[in-house]
Amino acid sequence: MNIRQTNWNIAKNKCFDITIIGGGINGAAIYKKLSQQGYKVFLVDKGDFSCGTSQASAMMIWGGLLYLKNLDFLSVYNLSKDRDDLIESYGNQIISRYFRYIPNSEWGRNKYFVYLALQFYWLLGKCKRRRPSFQQKFEELSFINKHNGKDSLIYQEGFLKQSDSRFVLDWIVKHQTEESLAINYCSILNATYNNKDKLWSLDLKDNFARGECTIKSKMVLNCAGVWTDEVNKQFRIQSPYKHVFSKGVFIGFERPVSHRIPLIFEMGKNGDTLTFIPWGPVSLWGPTETMEKSIKNGYTVKPDDIDFLLKHASRNLNTSLSNSKIISLRCGLRPLAVKKTFEADCYPLDLSRNHRIVEDLDLPWISIYGGKISGCLSLAHNVAKKISKKVSPSLKGSSPVVNQFPVYTSFPGLQEQVPTVDWCVANEFCCTLEDYLRRRTNIAQWVSREGLGAQAENIEYLRGVSSCLPIFEEKNHEMYLNEYKNLVQRQFDTLVDGVNRLT
Ligand SMILES: Cc1cc2nc3c(=O)[nH]c(=O)nc-3n(C[C@H](O)[C@H](O)[C@H](O)COP(=O)(O)OP(=O)(O)OC[C@H]3O[C@@H](n4cnc5c(N)ncnc54)[C@H](O)[C@@H]3O)c2cc1C
Fold first, then answer.
1. pTM here?
2. What is the pLDDT of residues 286-298, one digit of tens each?
3. Which residue owns the Cα nearest ligand 1 atom 42?
4. Residue 154 region, left (φ>0) first, then alpha (ψ -120 to 50), else beta?
5. Which domain holds residue 290?
6. CATH no. for residue 37?
């Protein structure tokens, strides 16, 4: 029996201290913290863990350099502290990495201004990272347009070693016990609070295998990212805050050989920047930052997003990055916390990235607004503090960390080894081809056409992968493969041209 089925069986009719709705970075960080404190925690995600915005970030664990432009020094101070705590405590998942800021005197900031800003940034970070300095000769000059000037400034941030979704997943998977557990592809249909026994009764629906059950919980945390307001509305919870959404898109290209550290370029508008980030065999260019009203549109890359990014790429890079050379697309929606009365008419970067923790006045229900991967430790800490005033942990000690060591295999064209699909199904809640290719491994981001290959050369390999996935209801493995091919056609092929496709 795989871990998902096991957890489903254990969860039935069980009573938890806390139920968390949403397995993105916010939900995962809180889940981990509370489990370690001896709470019985249940985490539920209506899709796969990390299938929302937490799979689409720049993977930077940073102090929020850009927010200096809003004079938001407190946020930068706090984020820098979080960054350093994360690097110190989770060295196996986060590395300290040099970044290179390329000032552009033509349409950006003066290099001495950037220098001073970076020194201030370093001071706000309590001088924990290497002191920023000018560097004139660097390898990446070979693919940067000359008008960017020869000067660059290097400074240090943190960076996720494998990926954002892996980071989230590891924090969930390693804290699975009989008392604290998680289930993906599971929705909450009804939530009713019984004042007599002071417990929520939550009706769950298995979205994958069509089961249903009920659990009890002393408190509920809504960590549904951009869906937080929807979830609150579904269960009639009021809040003085709401989310506005900022869409962010990256495009991935084959990494130039001399591209070794993330580069920051001036956008020349709204004080914003664009980054070129080396990640395995690809370099990510982006992100965009556009206000978006609809969640569906926010998770869909549009031709305009690609045009915008290609236009700016050609201004800064001389490596002829055209549409036909795109290897992967990456798209997410930033949940930004604002007062309920706020009417959005500004550039999203001008809005605060702080998180808000909102306690319902009548019911034991907490909603999380905003938040960043970089700030996940302090968010979890602050939430745990609030909870401790209302609910005590049922268990005496902290729950054990499960350290399992994956079985690895190779994937055509990738140098790095990847965990086998069998392993991911058994131990990591992997249910679909997309779960495996996009979130358990980086195949969908590193190999063209979401892993299919530019000319569908990996189709037989993917057929083998799908034959290891669990089957439910009337589906069969060939259906999984066809569904995935259709998804690639819809989400990638319609936007990216120039390859000779055979599927
Ligand atoms: C382009 C881009 C770049 C970024 N770069 C960085 C960066 O470099 N560093 C950084 O720190 N931050 C970065 N961010 C911000 C960061 O990625 C987000 O703030 C963070 O991932 C949001 O996490 P979350 O847990 O709130 O939401 P999500 O990751 O979206 O998770 C919410 C989860 O809730 C689930 N859910 C929704 N509704 C329900 C329901 N009814 N029942 C059960 N589950 C539900 C969803 O399926 C989802 O898994 C970036 C964001 C973007 C868009």
1. 0.96
2. 999 999 999 999 9
3. 46
4. beta
5. 92-161+243-338
6. 3.50.50.60
